[in-house]
Write a structure and sequence with these properties.
Oligomer: single chain
Largest sheet: 2 strands, antiparallel
Number of strands: 2
Helix content: 55-70%
Structural class: mainly alpha
Radius of gyration: 21 Å
């Protein structure tokens, strides 16, 4: 951190050119996170849904791509919401045409939640350009730069998780 205590930490305030390197990294990370939050908000707004709805769709699309079946209990567990909230979420997504309920192929008592083809297309259209731009930036990195960044981000995630686990 800055050695001049009157200057503050620089993490919350201050131009990057006056920050020590570790604080500048944290400031850049904050900038990235702010841009990501704004992008998610814009995506939710353009698709007319809330954060939990979008998280559910992302999970369902990934599971579908992996050939996995997702039931309401799986969705509830992944999102950390009650079964009643999950039922409301599924009702909303069925009503908006983003998912459908189907009988489980091997358990007649169960249902699976399946994203529609239109949902996959909508998500790809909405997020495709952003993903292409992000991938282009990542592709500019050397293998060594990529290893350093991946290691850093994993360690940052671990630090955050350790903090969350204690609180």
């Amino acid at each position: 951190m800055n050695s001049d205590s009157s200057a503050g930490s620089g993490y919350w305030y201050g131009p990057d050119e006056r920050l020590d390197p570790p604080t500048a990294v944290l400031q850049a990370l904050r900038g990235y996170r702010a841009a990501e939050v704004a992008t998610r908000r814009s995506t939710r707004d353009s698709m007319g849904m809330g954060e939990t709805d979008l998280l559910a769709l992302r999970y369902l699309l990934r599971a579908q791509a992996a050939g996995e079946r997702v039931g309401p209990k799986d969705l509830s567990r992944m999102l950390g919401i009650t079964t009643a909230s999950t039922t409301s979420l599924i009702d909303r997504l069925v009503g908006s045409g983003h998912v459908r309920r189907e009988p489980h192929p091997t358990d007649r008592r169960s249902l699976v939640i399946v994203p529609t083809a239109a949902t996959d297309s909508e998500v790809r259209e909405t997020l495709g350009e952003m993903h292409r731009r992000m991938l282009a930036v990542a592709e500019e990195l050397s293998a060594d730069e990529s290893r350093v960044i991946v290691s850093f981000l994993r360690r940052m995630a671990e630090a955050l998780q350790e903090h969350a686990d204690r609180h």
